[in-house]
């Protein structure tokens, strides 16, 4: 036995789509106002349109449905028998639409009540706190969670839908993500005042920096990426003296005299001002990087993520895409 043909979703076979056969919500709401107020003019004013526009909408509905809906007279407007029946149906459609809208608002509210941020260590420690304080002033009801890790981990969380917005410090935008530059940073070679490099008169040669065991961040961090790229032409980095996973740990090790390290300029201002660390100039190598906000490719940030992005860039927030 042959399979029965599928029933068209829009009704009878060959029928036009439902949207072309049913009046729009605005027209149905206008008809309900006419039924309630007994006057096309008052219904027009309540709907915020002119009386001629309201008459045009009613006539368009009558043409669409093929029946007269409203009897007009100098004493006012009253529904025809068909109009009364259509009004009952319209009321159910409008109530369903109101329920749909309430549900959509609840979804938006749930989305806007939380923000999951993933950020590489330097941005998480030295820039995000003031951005999040500013966001809290604008969105006091939004609960923010922050995961701090290296740039690779940030990308993984975004691609795994475990974060709404991320911040990285590497040389380029990670694969699968879109980005916007939100700042710039410079990496500094620093050492304790007692280290021989702290007393140098001439800048450090890149080859000597590359050949010296340093206190470094782990592979996958933005700092390590920039350093690896900058020193690749000089034989690459020597085996690390220590490999640590946080900026705070790197600073503590360097201040203790364990050895020189490379850190963000954002992270060492206090230590340099207090002479707990000394900057060691390096000639002939560029140790600069862009700081980027990142998000999954093609999925522009919305809600609180959009607002946080705007705060980091000091520009008006882009409008949410409809849908």
UniProtKB/TrEMBL annotation:
HTH lysR-type domain location, by residue? 23-80
User: Highest taxon of the source?
Assistant: Bacteria
Q: Which UniProt keywords apply?
A: DNA-binding, Transcription, Transcription regulation
Record's InterPro entries? Answer: LysR_HTH_N, LysR_subst-bd, WH-like_DNA-bd_sf, WH_DNA-bd_sf
> Which GO molecular function terms does the record list?
DNA-binding transcription factor activity; transcription cis-regulatory region binding
What family is this protein classified in? Belongs to the LysR transcriptional regulatory family.
Q: Which PANTHER family match?
A: HTH-TYPE TRANSCRIPTIONAL REGULATOR, HTH-TYPE TRANSCRIPTIONAL REGULATOR CYSL
Provide the protein name.
LysR family transcriptional regulator
Instruction: Please give the organism.
Output: Streptomyces corynorhini
């Amino acid at each position: 036995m042959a399979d029965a043909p599928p029933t068209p979703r829009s009704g009878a076979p060959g029928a036009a789509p439902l949207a072309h056969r049913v009046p729009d919500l605005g027209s149905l709401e206008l008809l309900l106002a006419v039924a309630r107020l007994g006057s096309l003019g008052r219904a027009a004013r309540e709907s915020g349109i002119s009386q001629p526009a309201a008459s045009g909408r009613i006539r368009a509905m009558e043409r669409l449905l093929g029946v007269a809906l409203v009897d007009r007279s100098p004493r006012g407007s009253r529904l025809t028998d068909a109009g009364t029946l259509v009004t009952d149906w319209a009321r159910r459609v409008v109530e369903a639409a109101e329920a749909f809208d309430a549900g959509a608002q609840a979804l938006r509210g749930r989305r806007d009540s939380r923000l999951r941020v993933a950020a590489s260590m330097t941005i998480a420690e030295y820039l995000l706190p003031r951005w999040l304080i500013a966001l809290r002033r604008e969105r006091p009801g939004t609960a923010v969670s922050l995961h701090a890790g290296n740039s690779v981990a940030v990308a993984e969380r975004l691609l795994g839908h475990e974060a709404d917005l991320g911040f990285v410090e590497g040389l380029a935008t990670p694969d699968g993500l879109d980005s916007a530059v939100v700042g710039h940073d410079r990496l500094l070679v620093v050492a304790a005042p007692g280290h021989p490099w702290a007393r140098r008169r001439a800048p450090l040669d890149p080859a000597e920096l590359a050949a010296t065991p340093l206190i470094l961040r782990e592979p996958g961090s933005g700092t390590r990426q920039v350093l690896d790229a900058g020193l690749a032409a000089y034989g690459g980095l020597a085996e690390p003296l220590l490999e640590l996973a946080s900026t705070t740990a790197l600073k503590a090790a360097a201040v203790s005299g364990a050895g020189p390290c490379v850190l963000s300029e954002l992270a060492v201002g206090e230590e340099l001002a207090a002479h707990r660390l000394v900057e060691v100039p390096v000639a002939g190598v560029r140790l600069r990087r862009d700081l980027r906000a990142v998000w999954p490719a093609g999925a522009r940030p919305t809600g609180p993520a959009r607002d946080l992005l705007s705060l980091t860039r000091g520009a008006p927030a882009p409008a949410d895409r409809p849908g």
